[in-house]
Design goal:
This protein is of the alpha/beta class. The protein has one domain: Aldolase class I (TIM Barrel), CATH 3.20.20. It contains eight helices and eight strands, in the order βαβαβαβαββαβαβαα. An eight-stranded parallel beta sheet has the order 1-8-7-6-5-4-3-2. β7, α6 and β8 form a beta-alpha-beta unit. The chain is globular. The chain starts with 5 loop residues before the first strand and ends with a helix. The chain binds D-xylitol-5-phosphate (DX5) and zinc ion. Zinc ion (ZN) binds next to β2. Zinc ion binds next to β2.
């Protein structure tokens, strides 16, 4: 049986004036998770939303929360992310001096732990942490904004990461974030991705549920 591709729609592209309606559609869809992008204006040149807003998102959303922190010192917010009821907390490799410690702290808090790589950070740097993480999130755009163009080199990085995971016996999932649509999604799935994040492709689609379905079967 082929492995099922997971879809994690990115809240960043949602219509915040109609949050209840948007999340209602996600709840009814085949989406597996909801991807939440937290930015600080320091690690990335943008600010998104913080915990007081996300508290309401968490109440309205029935899908597991896949939280992506694009902030410096993400370890300061492990308990806030846990209090949201998050399933997964992703921190950037580039933002953590003591990555191993941060990963353990996330797990000790009872969440799954993910490490995220910017487009210019090579996969081989994960050699000594790959067995400790539940997921690797590969950025296929420079983080900070939705609606950017997919960086092609990500396909090679997915392949390299798949090799590293197999060679080391790691159980980490491969998630890709940025510029994902049906076309790039199909190629990512074939290269070995397990989870696709999609913001604009999902929330700007005329039929969100149908787009999520199309992404789920991408690459089959
Ligand atoms: C970018 C964020 C992404 C973003 C993706 O910094 O991490 O999750 O929402 O948006 P699209 O799918 O529009 O590229
Ligand atoms: Zn993201």
């Amino acid at each position: 049986m082929e492995k099922e591709l997971k879809i994690s729609p990115s809240l960043l592209a949602a219509d915040f004036g109609n949050l209840e309606r948007e999340l209602g559609k996600i709840n009814k869809s085949e989406a597996d998770w909801l991807h939440i992008d937290i930015m600080d204006g320091v690690f990335v040149p943008n600010i998104s939303f913080g915990f007081p807003v996300l508290k309401y998102v968490a109440k309205l959303c029935e899908k597991p929360l896949d939280v992506h922190l694009m902030i410096v010192q993400p370890e300061k917010f492990i308990h806030e992310v846990k209090d949201l009821g998050a399933m997964m907390m992703n921190v950037h490799y580039e933002a953590c001096v003591h990555l191993h410690r941060v990963i353990q702290q996330i797990k000790d808090a009872g969440m799954k732990a993910g490490v995220t790589l910017n487009p210019s950070t090579p996969v081989f740097l994960l050699e000594d942490i790959i067995r400790d993480v539940d997921m690797v999130l590969l950025m296929s755009v420079n983080p900070g904004f939705g609606g950017q163009k997919f960086i092609e080199h990500t396909i090679d990085k997915v392949r390299a990461l798949r090799e590293l995971i197999e060679r080391t016996g790691s159980h980490a999932l491969i998630e890709v974030d940025g510029g994902v649509n049906q076309e790039t999604g199909a190629r990512l799935a074939k290269a070995g991705a397990d989870v696709l994040v999609a913001g604009s492709a999902v929330f700007k689609a005329p039929d969100m549920g149908e787009m999520i379905h199309q992404l789920k079967i991408a690459g089959r």
